[in-house]
Amino acid sequence: MKEMRDKVMEFLKEHLELDKFVLEDCNFMPGGVFVKDNEGKCMLFFYDFMKDKVDYWLEDEK
Predict the structure, then answer these.
(1) Which residues face 55 on adjacent strands?
(2) Is the CB of residue 23 less than 8 Å from the CB of residue 37?
(3) Is the Cβ–Cβ distance between 13 and 23 less than 8 Å?
(4) β partners of residue 42
(5) Is the backbone of residue 22 left (phi > 0), alpha (psi -120 to 50) or beta?
(6) Which of 18, 30, 31, 41 could form a disulfide with 5 if both were Cys (CB 3.0 to 4.6 A apart)?
(7) How would you classify the pairing of strands 53-58 and 42-48?
(8) Tens digits of per-residue pLDDT, 7-54?
(9) CB of 35 closer than 8 Å to CB of 23
(10) DSSP of 10-53, one letter per residue?
């Protein structure tokens, strides 16, 4: 699981200015990290081992 978390964190560092977001662990997803902005909106980033890539879900996606 640490390897998946490392891949997610590397992805986030490459694509976001992390100091502008709040990061929280999401232990029920592989490498999962909740990313919250200053308006309270949230995205879930995780490692999709079936696709071998970092993926994400937006708060309002169904």
Answers:
(1) 46
(2) no
(3) no
(4) 36
(5) beta
(6) 31
(7) antiparallel
(8) 999 999 999 999 999 999 999 999 999 999 999 899 999 999 999 999
(9) yes
(10) HHHHHHS-GGGSEEEEETTSTTEEEEE-TTS-EEEEEEETTTTE
DSSP structural state of residue 9: H
Burial 5-25 (b: 16+ CB within 10 A, else e): bebbbebbeeeeeeeebeeee
Give, in degrees to the nearest 5, the angle at Cα 12 between 7 and 18.
140
* Contact present, 8 and 45 (Cβ < 8 Å): yes
Stated length of the chain: 62
Whether this prediction's pTM lies above 0.90 is answered by no
47 DSSP β-pair partners: 54
